[in-house]
Specification:
It comes from Dentiscutata erythropus. By secondary structure, this protein is an alpha+beta fold. The chain has 6 helices and 6 strands. It folds into 2 domains: 110 residues, no CATH class; 72 residues. A 4-stranded mixed sheet has the order 1-2-3-4.
Length: 185
């Protein structure tokens, strides 16, 4: 599972995961330590203690807000998969500003792990966000560009992108319905 900075994952389902993210934002409980770029907080529906999962090796650690993050920092120093991804990462890091524009800085290295599923999701999001035609993925220039970036990435057909886009729309629609139902009840 891919994560964004400061993400919170519920062990129940995807919709409750997104609800947990919103609740965390509403409560203004932000993670300030940079170590959270490499860990995901897992909250359980029952009274079980929260866990922090390493995004690189999937190892889980106990997490209490009062305990701090020293044990997470120590783990990163010994995590072999983190060392591999850090060694591969470029010196160019991208950040999104408030307008969702990408800003490039050269002073930070970002750990990166390739995920074909994440790349496919990002492709669908790009098609939707930039209002591109579904046939864009079949254009020769785009296919050549993707092949140069990642030769083993299999670009989906326009029909598959259309299906994924409709699924994305339906998921977002269900998510909003769920939030509204929780607010009303």
């Amino acid at each position: 599972m891919e994560t964004n900075n400061n993400s919170i994952v519920s062990s129940d389902s995807t919709s409750s995961q997104e609800i947990s993210n919103i609740k965390a934002q509403i409560n203004n409980k932000k993670f300030t330590s940079a170590v959270w770029n490499n860990f995901t907080l897992i909250k359980f529906a029952d009274s079980s203690p929260n866990k922090a999962k390493c995004n690189h090796c999937e190892k889980r650690f106990s997490h209490k807000r009062s305990s701090g993050t020293s044990h997470l920092h120590r783990h990163l120093k010994t995590c072999k998969k983190y060392k591999i991804t850090t060694a591969r990462s470029s010196s160019l890091d991208d950040h999104h500003d408030k307008d969702n524009q990408i800003q490039y800085t050269s002073n930070q290295a970002k750990s990166w792990v390739y995920s074909e599923e994440r790349s496919r999701t990002d492709l669908v999001n790009m098609i939707i966000r930039d209002k591109l035609s579904f046939q864009f993925v079949e254009h020769t220039g785009f296919l050549k560009f993707v092949s140069g970036l990642r030769p083993d990435f299999k670009v989906c057909s326009a029909d598959t992108i259309k299906r994924d886009s409709l699924k994305f729309y339906q998921d977002r629609k269900d998510f909003v319905k769920n939030i509204l139902q929780n607010i009303v009840s």
